[in-house]
Amino acid sequence: MKVLMFGWEFPPHILGGLGTASYGLTKGLSAQPDMEITFCLPKPWGDEDQSFLKIIPMDCVPVVWHDVSVDDISNCSGGRISPEVYYSMRDCIYADFRYIHTNNLGCIEFSGRYPDNLYEEINNYSIVAGVVARQQQFDIIHAHDWLTYPAGIYAKQLSGVPLVIHVHATDFDRSRGNVNPVVYGIEKDGMDHADCIMCVSELTRQTVINQYHQDPNKCFAMHNAVYPLPERIQKMVDQRRSFREKKEKVVTFLGRITMQKGPEYFVEAAKLVIERSRNIRFCMAGSGDMMNAMIELVAQKGISHRFHFPGFMKGDAVYEAFRDSDVYVMPSVSEPFGISPLEAMQCRVPTIISRQSGCGEILNKCIKTDYWDIHSMADAIYALCKYESLHNYLSVEGKREVDTITWEKVGERIRSHYDRLLGI
Amino acid sequence: MKTICLYFELHQNIHLKRYRFFDIGSDHYYYDDYENERSIVETANNSYIPALNALIEMAEENQGFFKCAISLSGCSIELLETHAPQVIGLLIKLVHTGCCEIVAEPYSHGLASLGNESAFRAEVNHLCEKVEGLFGVKPTVFRNSCSIYSDEIGRMVYEMGFKGMLTEGAKHILGWKSPHFLYNCAEASSLKLLLRDNRLSEDISFRFADSNWSEYPLMADKYMDWIAQLPEDEKLVNLFMELCALGVFQPLSSNILDFFKAIPNEAQKRGVKFATPSEICKKMKPVGAIHVTDPISWVDEERDVSPWLGNIMQQEAFEKLYSIADRVLVCNDRRLLQDWDYLQATNNFRFMSTKHGSENAYRGIYDTAYDAFTNYMNIIGDYITRVNNLYPDLENEEISPLMMIIRNQEDELNRKNREIAHLQKTLELLKGKSKAKASKPKGKKI
């Protein structure tokens, strides 16, 4: 079975959870027998792990015919596309795209990020997708997140094979209900054309059904998973000091500091805890458009002496932060899935999540509160810092629970949906 | 001839209210009055009142034939007194028919038998006093909270002067033995043990209205046939259940009360009779000792104490609570003692269970086990501070010698009382003799 996937991010160069999820999902799916995955990325760096799938760099696919030599191709593309594939793609150019700015290979350049001219980039992406869809052979199309829905729709119209779209987030989550009509339009269009909609949680599925008016029979909850930590990282997080050893406890928030993640509730809860305790510190790692507002809020509450902003973290720093944390809090206002609690639990950090988070549907060994219920959140933070048994129980059992959530199982379930769509 | 021993537990816990850590030190009232009133009134209306009426009717119709036993926890007596006094009235009426024995249990329905012996003895005495005041009878048979039993508990119960004890006929301690005999405690051979037949008991309390059960619908004649057809030498059938099995677990619409009302007649037809636990302890001879090293209970498939002490959170809460038991016992602050009774209830620990299958279990006002633990620990935190503030300069290590002195003095007083009584008796005897002697010569003279 050949799957053509459209995605926007892929590790190691990622901006958010979408990249991590795309990696896990494709790798889990590749464990299925007879599965060939072709993954289209706007701008891969060339150092992606291609052992289990084939990556098509969309910024190396020609849309304008140029007579170029083999050497030119390898020079200009940095070796990311082979000349045979390039020439074969070039034969599939289907219209005159000279009005678009292209480079000397006849390719459109992508930023691969979320730039200001995002709509233009999305449009260009679907133009390139037209070439790819004509050149490739595939049985199913799988598009990740709204940026790639137009490409998915176009590929479906060209090839007539079933379209699966994967809803990693909706604009309702990102905007707390004040949707951007253009984004909503793209999302709804994608869903209307899809044969199967995979949502990362039941919560998202309900949004898709109720806000995008989709047929519940074609919407399925497909929860994310995590990969076990690499040995090196596991060793690092295993150096965590025991509950009794640590006189001072650290409570961590880690993520983009934006409206969706509910950082102000974390600050409010911190205020309640700091007033009543002497040995608890708070740490808000990450960056985002609400960061300055949060720093101001913390100062206004008069808790700056115990509330810290270490800034954006990536790579090992994230795991170091987990290792040194005693409680992880994710107070998201609306979280389609939210993979970071699972990562915290892998590092044996007891976790508090909001009930409005999709991952809560598959996690039991963590504390759930409503995001707005700062009293309950503060109470849970205090209990985890104060009562050793609760801390140890969630630490050990949380790790055990998260170890059973694997991408291979997700791959199996996705495969069964493919089979059903293809009538196998 | 077979004998049925029918026993009902009447217990409702006192619900704790939502108590945040910032309430510690400022708010010393821990109870959810609304939920307490709501739940006790609901249970009384749906279960206790109709069930007790049915039992009274059965007792009056089968005067001297039908017998049963009931135990009440102190907390539930208090709840009933406040919110549903008519239930107490019915209980008194039932006891006055002479068919119903009151069995003793710990006042708080707690785990003191596993945590602190003095606390356990104190609360059993407390309940006996309460029951005596209400019904005018002194219990002679004991049942621990949730039928928790071990050899050690048996010894304590015997030392408190009880003749018999009710507990679970757990498979793992019985092995090939049958619960249909009277046994005795391994550590105190004079304490008789009545073991519950869990299959026959749960046929009524859990399965009666379950239409997926192969024996559904259960009728009194069929049920009595099962009992009558038991092997010849198995003479005792102990049916123990919660009173709210009649009306709550098995809704009244399942006609469970009609089933019960038909039982005495069907029993009589088959030559099966009823007896109260104390009658059984008096009349029957135990066939042997039962050894129970690890505590058993009547809950869950394992029939052990894992529903209350199965995970580390429950264990921490349990240890914290009983770490101050000695201090509480030496105080005489009425409010502290009352809180002590309410906080010990097993339900508080059950709500923290994370056992497999407990995910959707009833948790009172809580959503999850963690929620229950956090709330309880916050309350205990406040309570412990209050208790410690009572004797702030006294270390825990200093208390136990003091407790020892008090206990020794008490023992000595008791011994002396006994001695005085004995001496007085002999004195009277001697007086009587001397009188007789004095009158004899007179008689001779005459």
Report on the architecture of this protein:
The complex is a heterodimer of chains A (424) and B (446). Chain A is α/β, with parallel strands linked by helices and 424 residues long. Chain A has 16 helices and 13 strands. In chain A, helix 10 (263-276) packs across helix 14 (374-386). With 446 residues, chain B is α/β, with parallel strands linked by helices. Chain B has two domains: 2-290, 7-stranded beta/alpha barrel, CATH 3.20.110.20; 395-446. Chain B is 52% helix and 11% strand. Chain B contains 18 helices and twelve strands. Chain B has helices spanning 33-61, 74-83, 85-96, 112-115, 117-135, 151-159, 171-174, 198-205, 220-228, 256-269, 277-283, 306-309, 312-322, 325-330, 334-344, 346-350, 369-390, 396-445; strands spanning 2-10, 68-72, 100-103, 141-143, 164-168, 182-185, 192-196, 236-242, 246-247, 250-251, 272-274, 289-290. In chain B, strands 1, 2, 3, 8 and 11 form a five-stranded parallel beta sheet that branches. A five-stranded mixed beta sheet of chain B has the order 4-5-7-6-12. Chain B has a two-stranded parallel ribbon with strand order 9-10. In chain B, strand 4, helix 6 and strand 5 form a beta-alpha-beta unit. The mean pLDDT of chain B is 92. The interface between A and B is medium-sized, with 22 and 20 residues.
Brief sketch in words of this structure:
The complex is a heterodimer of chains A (424) and B (446). By secondary structure, chain A is an alpha/beta fold.
List keywords for this structure.
heterodimer; A: 424 residues; alpha/beta; Rossmann fold; 2 domains; seven-stranded parallel beta sheet; six-stranded parallel beta sheet; 16 helices; 42% helix; B: 446 residues; 7-stranded beta/alpha barrel; five-stranded parallel beta sheet; five-stranded mixed beta sheet; 18 helices; 11% strand; globular
